[in-house]
Design a protein that fits this description.
Strand order of the largest sheet: 6-7-8-3-9-10
CATH class of the largest domain: Alpha Beta
Number of helices: 9
Bound molecules: adenosine-5'-triphosphate, magnesium ion
Largest sheet: 6 strands, mixed
Shape: globular
Helix content: 25-40%
Number of domains: 2
Strand content: 15-25%
Number of strands: 10
Mean pLDDT: 91
CATH architecture of the largest domain: 3-Layer(aba) Sandwich
């Protein structure tokens, strides 16, 4: 970390859904290329709101959001794909009645024809990575298990070759075994030089795999550090950061 230009940098971002209520207050955080920034906090702390603000669904009331040195505060969400920013949201982003393959290719539809060959190569790459999706490529995405649908989400993200991937609660509702697979895919994304902002309720796993961890409490960053800073009795520390030490 340090002085190099961050891939994503939020500075003093305040945002909210209503004019007079701020859900995020003075948020500053960084994501570097090839690194994972983990964001942890209680339900309702504002974690998903941070992602919605970065994606332009919620323009900041103050502060700046810089991406690769460019101010993207209040960006139109449909421009994210061209900026090579990809979001894997907390809710499903799949069309349940469309086939797995159509779901994978949908974000790439507007690409010029000369990319067709490259797309086929990339599609083969995701089918090698997730063989079950090749097997089920013609089935409606909604007929797949929760874990397989998560594979579609990650495969779809991989196809877009983003530089920045915002991942919200990827392990929610999944078995411990499938959750572990999901965390390994995220590490693979980071190894491919993507910058990752990761939100997950599995605090220990997030702390272990992140290069930088931010704790969000009632819309404010109340702690920020490396995994080493979070070593020791993590549970008690996190309880304290989250204001649960009565
Ligand atoms: N569309 C919305 N309109 C108004 N308020 C909202 C909206 N979405 C979220 N909120 C409120 O903003 C606050 C932060 O919500 P957010 O979803 O960002 O929390 P979170 O940390 O992601 O929680 P969780 O762990 O449950 O996903 C909550 O008080 C929530 O009720
Ligand atoms: Mg959320």
């Amino acid at each position: 970390m340090g002085d190099a230009q961050a891939l994503l940098e939020l500075r003093g971002v305040t945002a909210g859904y209503a004019q007079d209520i701020d859900v995020l207050r003075d948020i500053s955080l960084r994501v570097e290329a090839g690194r994972i920034t983990g964001l942890i906090g209680l339900n309702g702390a504002g974690k998903s709101t941070i992602i919605k603000t970065i994606c332009g669904f919620l323009p900041p009331k103050s502060g700046t959001i810089a991406y690769a040195g460019q101010d993207i505060s209040g960006v139109a969400p449909h421009r994210l794909i061209d900026l090579r920013i990809c979001c894997i949201p907390q809710e499903s982003s799949l069309f349940p009645y469309l086939s797995v393959q159509d779901n994978l290719l949908l974000p790439l539809l507007g690409r010029p024809r000369q990319f067709a060959k490259e797309m086929r190569t990339r599609l083969q790459e995701v089918f090698d990575l997730f063989p079950v999706l090749h097997e089920k490529r013609s089935q409606p995405a909604g007929s797949l298990s929760g874990g397989q649908q998560k594979q579609v989400e990650f495969a779809k993200a991989w196809l877009q070759q983003p530089r920045l991937c915002l991942i919200d609660e990827p392990s929610i509702g999944l078995s411990p075994k499938i959750s572990e697979e999901v965390f390994v895919w995220i590490e693979k994304f980071a190894q491919a030089q993507m910058g990752i902002l990761l939100i997950d309720h599995n605090v220990r796993r997030v702390v272990r795999m992140s290069d930088r961890i931010c704790v969000l409490s009632l819309g404010r960053i109340t702690a920020d550090g490396t995994p080493a800073d979070f070593a020791g009795d993590l549970h008690q520390q996190v309880q304290q950061w989250l204001g649960l030490n009565f």
